[in-house]
Amino acid sequence: MTSLHRFSHPLTFNILELHDKLACRGFSVLFCWVPSHVGISGNEHADNLAKSATDSLNCPVPLSDIKKYVKIKLHSNWQSQWNLKDANKLHSIKHLPAGLVAS
After folding, report:
1. Would you list the domain boundaries of the chain?
2. Helix, strand, coil % (nearest 5) of the chain?
3. Do the beta carbons of residue 77 and residue 96 sit within 8 Å?
4. CA 39 – CA 53 distance, rounded (Å)
């Protein structure tokens, strides 16, 4: 398990986090090394097909689209939280959090 700590890939951290959650709930997780598929007929071809499939999905998203998505998501979450606070004295006069305009 300690050898996983030296990697910085985000998936590694997700695996470690999931491992910790499961361990806290009493589950036992066993990590084991699996040898490569070298020498297995058709494996190289399958690897190349898999790589080509993921390469075609690697299209950059414009920063403006990312900003727009984040802004919409943030406003949506903010509105949801605002709606849950029905005891808020401002609810009777204002249905949107400050700075938001209904779209």
Report:
1. 10-47+61-85
2. 60, 0, 40
3. no
4. 23
Two tokens at 17? 């986090």
Q: Token pair of 21, please? A: 């959650």
Residue with structure tokens 């399958």? 46
DSSP string, 44-88: HHHHHHHHHHHHHT--PPPHHHHHHHHHHHHHHHHHHHHHH-TT-
Per-residue pLDDT tens digits of the chain, which is 103 residues long: 455 445 566 777 788 889 899 999 998 888 777 667 667 777 778 778 777 776 665 567 778 888 888 988 888 888 888 778 777 777 667 666 666 555 5
SS3 of 97, please? coil
